[in-house]
Amino acid sequence: MRKLYLFSFFIISLGLLLSACSQNDDNSMTKVKVAEVTRSIFYAPQYVALEQGFFEEEGLDVELQTIAGGDKVMTSLLSDNSHIGLVGSETSIYVKARGAEDPVINFAQLTQTDGTFLIAREPMDDFTFEDLKDSDFLGQRKGGMPQMVGEYVLKQQGIDPENDLNLIQNIDFANIASSFSSGTGDYVQLFEPTASQFVKDGAGHIVASFGEESGKVPYTVFMAKQSYLDENEETAKKFTKAVYKAQQFVKNNSAEEIAEIVQPYFEDTDLELLESSVDRYKSQLSFAENPILDEEEWNNLKNIMDESGELPEDIPYDDLVNSQIAEEVISE
User: Fold this and answer.
1) pLDDT tens-digit profile of 270-297?
2) Percentage of the chain modeled with pLDDT above 90
3) What residues pair up with 208 in beta bridges, in sequence order?
């Protein structure tokens, strides 16, 4: 009986010890709150980093929330409700131009092209941008990256968005696809996997890629306030290291495998559609292969913003980009 009691005491004590160790391990993890501007397969490397445990390997407990709208992500960052934002670099320029004393700094790039595709209602094997003239074009929110890149590409192709077509911009981002489905517009600008869903359903046909037409640009970037980076430099470096691991994983693995990994973030989307979406983005090099945002991409962004009349101030690369963190991660 005494032996049984001692054995039971040992088991209980061991359980308490293991529990305490587990709690210590949890307490040693650094909490990082990330706000993404939308839930999109375009951000596949981020979800790979989460699902494959790359952040945990770096001692980071990442809490991801989706906050629709670049302005809302910026508000979350500036009010310290989030530590890191995943959003277009143009938002950091807007904040800086408004005189922010604690500017938002771009430190790790995730996507390097536009992620939208031009969808037509009917198949158009011989499509040219001239076909857009006099059409109803269902675009994106004014001042946002999708719309600015869309207008930039149209102008590069000799199309004046204001005079050559009827540009529709009064529909919220979340309702653009359903509006096209219900009959609004002859053409629409959509992200994946919605674009592939339209093709599968016979509701639309992909006729052009804005990512292929516009060149490299810091389309979606991880960013944080300067004060956060100053106070949490090691955390930012670990975060960037996890992102880089995921970028290399996406580069070196099949669209099928990536789609299976990220499917928990897109439960209502067919796996086959996710795979085709990932494959489309991989084939046009939309996923950045490393987290460095270079100066040429920054200047291309400003050219696109300037062309659309949305560049509030010509802010130098060094003012809003910290490339040192990513460079150190890659060199290790």
Assistant:
1) 999 999 999 999 999 999 999 999 999 9
2) 83
3) 118
Q: What is the pLDDT of residue 283?
A: 95
Tokens 């993404």 -> residue: 36
- Cα–Cα dist 258/247, whole Å: 11
In angstroms, rounded to a whole number, what is the distance separating the alpha carbons of residues 205 and 221? 29
Neighbours of 53 (CB within 10 A): 11
Bridge-based pairing of strands 116-120 and 60-66 is unpaired
Q: How far is CA 171 from the centre of its chain?
A: 21
**C-beta neighbour count of 56 within 10 angstroms:** 14
The domains of the chain, with CATH numbers, are: 30-113+217-331 (3.40.190.10), 124-213 (3.40.190.10)
> Taking phi first (over 0 means left), then psi (-120 to 50 degrees means alpha), and beta for anything else, what does residue 215 get?
left
Q: Let me know: does 214 contact 113? Beta carbons within 8 Å.
A: yes
The Cα 262–Cα 271 span in angstroms is 10
Specify the pLDDT at position 139.
Answer: 87
Residue 102 is given by DSSP the state: S
Say if CB 256 and CB 181 are below 8 A apart. no
- Amino acid of residue 64: L
**Comparing C-alpha atoms, which of 182, 164, 170, 174 is closest to residue 139?**
170
**How would residue 94 be classed by pLDDT, with cut points 50, 70 and 90?**
very high
7-21, 109-123, 150-164, 200-214 — which is least confidently predicted? 7-21
Contact 315, 97 (CB under 8 A): yes
Burial class (CB in 10 A: 0-12, 13-18, 19+), 221: buried
- The pair of three-digit structure tokens given for residue 240, joined into one six-digit string: 């960037």
The token pair at 55 is: 């952040």
> How far is the C-alpha of 179 from the C-alpha of 136, rounded, in Å?
12
Q: What's the predicted TM-score (pTM) here?
A: 0.87
114 phi/psi in degrees, rounded to 5: -60, 150
Going by the DSSP 8-state scheme, the letter that residue 86 receives in this structure is E
DSSP assignment letter at 321: B
Tokens for 130, please give them: 């001239």
Which phi and psi angles does 60 have, rounded to 5°? -110, 135
